[in-house]
Specification:
Order of helices and strands: HEEHEHEEH
Strand order of the largest sheet: 2-1-3-4-5
Largest sheet: 5 strands, mixed
Strand content: 15-25%
Radius of gyration: 14 Å
Distance between the termini: 37 Å
Structural class: alpha+beta
Number of strands: 5
Number of helices: 4
Shape: globular
Length: 137
Amino acid sequence: MEFKKEWLEGVKAAREKAYTPYSKFKVGAYLIAKDGVTFDGCNVENAAYGDCICAERTALVSAIAHGYRPGDFEALVVTTDTENPSSPCGSCRQVIKELCDDEMPVFLTNINGDVIERTVDDLLPLGFSGRDLEDVK
């Protein structure tokens, strides 16, 4: 899939919304649905560190709350303010696996505009999701 310049602008704007008073590590996510609607997400920290939520999950949860369902998504873009693009954490990879098609592209970017393309399956090979429960008798 071809990466679109407007996605980079969208994900950078999402990153600017991050609430990161402790780590100062801002992450933005920009989820594109197959119908063209977009959802942005940012990480939101909490003094009780375990209660933080990542940008990727914020965008996906927002889409689900707006009535979208697994398989409705075309691509996910994630950006950080780092020298090299960063990959989603394990919890985010699991949620992405649950809600997105295995071959959906995930674009990892940074504020310099570097882009690495992977698929959901690349990020979590042999992952477990609700699709694995479909054959349970």
